[in-house]
Specification:
heterodimer; A: 514 residues; mainly alpha; two-stranded antiparallel sheet; 73% helix; B: 152 residues; 66% helix
């Protein structure tokens, strides 16, 4: 199996290095990095903005580009977190804790250099895990029938809802709301038109791009307008500042290792968000450190470990997304949605049926990560300039790109209206402190959940007991039960687990980061 | 807004959405476990959402009072909100009766006015600049199916 994986990977490199595919991958990394650096824009908005562009493309370059956008913007977000104390993407909130103090000490360049090394190393480990684990998971996944798929999706949704840093009840409520939004449109098995409120444009369902850009674009603008003031950073980052000294490398070697391990472990669990992963990696470093008082005042370990964990988790997250068709977090849900739009059903058959996509994607991760390192060394000064774009110019321009992007998916102005509606809904939910990201997870998984539930019950003649009778399904159902029990326990014990984690830094609006 | 009122309204909103899903969904026919009809899944989701809403509001009420620390709440930002909403509506209207260029100008200009630090002149200059980029990128380079000018 290993030899087979390696030959497949070799072919994957062939696919990813085809001139056409490579160009799009490169484009994705550059644009993703650029958007990620912009204040207030994270990977979710970056991917949804560029998603319409891929509709007319061949699926291979499309998914390679979107993956490039993803890790490009993730890396770009780290720059904003370290240099400006601005966590545009929630997992970077923890990077701010020590990254910004390092910048204040004039060590911002070193922090960026270490981040780069940490993310490259962690991504490489994640990719290797992905290469060897995916075929294994696929052989298991072939045994999955509708009841197993239902149970595992249920668990994914439950974990995705509860593992946000806010209230678990609210997170689960949001996944259910997302699943409800997913039922809008024509029911695939009966042909009934549901919840269209008389709009024929809704018969095809809510457009993924409109939902994502409403929730992660317009809702954020509504929340941040007149409230986000980017303080111009006066830091100058020069090339030679970025090269860490030998002592600094030695200091961050083990944190990188541990961060990578934490990320890999959590990536394999569907539904654990990247934010919680980075917090755990940080907490772990602080716990085992001999000098925990340095954390929060510019400890290099506090930057290296969380960044490594988030990047390895990102890579490992692709395993359940690709081989089971179950996205681990909202970003994966978005990428999954993109695959579905191209008529590719992720699942156990993806690797055998669309080997070019799967292995091309794996190979492109490596190529993309190398590109990221090569790009960021010379371009860092430009990124520092981009960081200082005032919000008052940024959001009107971004709004236009959102409107045109959504319009271009189906040449329909109706969908631009959907963006406004979901933006307003998202802003209200954010104000009520609901995490909005699980909505996307529910939206993508909801229809699949319905389909599999229907099939299971049809086969079992309406007996729900089938979910606990089949062993694999029973394990997942038990895991769901355990998760709920654990949540209740934590609640009763007044969040003892939570106290181990560092207090999440509130952004300047005082809202919890989801 | 305290945490209590926030959870209270949040829970109420979930109950409202859940119950309306139940009402609307039951019209599509629920069917049975063996033969689920189109309404089955939405009705169950709506019921779950309503129950979660009750739980959210209930858990807010159960917490002891002293934990509801008064947080500093931000004043509403009506100017920004109205301008952003209006700008998208203007894009819709002008996109239909006007074309890409007027719609582009309108969405950037109106939304830029939502920020207190933008003067009318600054918003105007930004809108002109972005319109130029928009024409070059979407109309000329990407050949977007959206006429620059149209009359309905």
């Amino acid at each position: 199996m290993v030899v087979q994986s390696l030959t497949d990977l070799w072919q994957g490199f062939g696919v990813a290095l085809e001139w056409h595919n490579f160009m799009w991958s490169f484009f994705g990394v550059v644009v993703g990095n650029l958007i990620g650096v912009l204040p207030g824009m994270g990977p979710l908005s970056a991917i949804s903005l560029l998603l319409p562009m891929t509709y007319s493309m061949h699926p291979v370059p499309a998914i390679l580009m979107l993956a490039g956008v993803f890790y490009g913007s993730q890396y770009g977000g780290a720059i904003g977190a370290i240099l400006l104390n601005l966590p545009c993407h929630p997992p970077h909130a923890v990077t701010c804790l020590d990254g910004y103090p390092l910048t204040q000490k004039g060590k911002g360049g070193t922090a960026l250099g270490i981040t780069m090394i940490a993310s490259f190393f962690a991504a490489s480990v994640g990719i290797i895990v992905m290469i060897f684990l995916s075929p294994l998971l696929v052989s298991v996944a072939f045994k999955f029938g509708p009841s197993e798929l239902f149970s595992i999706m249920l668990m994914g949704l439950l974990v995705g809802g509860t593992m946000t840093s806010g209230s678990a009840l609210k997170g689960v409520a949001m996944t259910v709301l997302g699943a409800l939004i997913g039922t809008i449109g024509t029911d695939v098995s009966s042909g009934a038109i549901r919840f269209t409120f008389g709009f024929p444009d809704l018969a095809d369902g809510v457009e993924l791009v409109a939902l994502a850009l409403g929730l992660f674009g317009v809702a954020e603008f509504l929340r941040n307008v007149n409230r986000m003031h980017v303080v111009g950073s006066t830091t100058k980052v020069r090339l030679r500042d970025m090269r860490p000294s030998g002592a600094e490398l030695k200091q961050s070697f083990w944190p990188i290792m541990r961060g990578t391990a934490v990320g890999t472990l959590f990536g394999a669990m569907p539904g654990t968000g990247p934010t919680i992963t980075t917090f755990i990696a940080y907490a772990l470093e602080k716990r085992i450190s001999k000098t925990p008082e340095r954390f929060g005042n510019g400890a290099l370990e506090g930057v290296a470990a969380p960044e490594a964990s988030s990047h390895s988790k990102t890579q490992v997250d692709f395993i359940p997304t690709m081989s089971l068709g179950i996205p681990g977090d909202p970003i994966m849900a978005l990428l999954l949605g993109a695959l579905l739009i191209h008529g590719i059903q992720p699942g156990p058959l993806l690797i055998s049926r669309h080997a070019d996509i799967f292995w091309g994607l794996v190979a492109s991760f490596w190529i993309g990560n190398v590109l990221l390192v090569l790009l960021n060394v010379p371009l860092i000064q430009i990124w520092v300039k981009v960081l200082q774009v005032p919000y008052r110019f940024l959001y009107p321009s971004a709004l236009l790109f959102i409107a045109v992007g959504v319009y271009s998916t189906n040449s329909s102005l109706f969908e631009v209206g959907e963006v406004l509606l979901f933006g307003a809904l998202g802003a209200v939910l954010l104000a009520l402190k609901f995490p909005v990201a699980p909505i996307l997870l529910g939206y993508v998984l909801g229809p699949m959940l319905e389909e599999n539930l229907r099939r299971t019950l049809l086969l079992s003649h309406g007996h729900l007991s089938v979910f606990v009778q089949r062993p694999i399904s029973a394990v997942f159902i038990a895991a769901c039960g355990l998760l709920i029990a654990a949540q209740l326990y934590v609640r009763i014990k007044k969040g003892r687990v939570i106290r181990l984690l560092p207090k999440p830094p509130l952004d300047e609006l005082g809202s919890p980061l989801n | 807004m305290t945490e209590y009122t926030r959870d209270y309204y949040g829970g109420a909103l979930m109950v409202l959405i859940g119950l309306s899903a139940v009402c609307l969904g039951s019209r599509y026919g629920i069917g049975s476990m063996t033969h689920m009809r189109a309404g089955y899944f939405p009705v169950s989701l709506g019921a779950i959402l309503a129950l979660l809403g009750v739980a959210i509001a209930g858990s807010a009420a159960m917490k002891p009072r002293r934990e509801h620390a008064q947080e500093e709440t931000l004043p509403p930002e009506w100017r920004g909100w109205i301008c952003i909403a209006l700008s998208i509506l203007a894009f819709l209207a002008l996109g239909k009766y006007g074309g890409l260029l007027p719609a582009t100008f309108a969405i950037v200009f109106i939304s830029a006015l939502g920020d207190r630090e933008n003067s009318i002149l600054a918003a105007f200059i930004l809108a002109v600049a972005i319109s130029a980029i928009c024409v070059a990128l979407f109309w000329w380079a990407l050949k977007l199916q959206f006429p620059l000018f149209s009359w309905g």
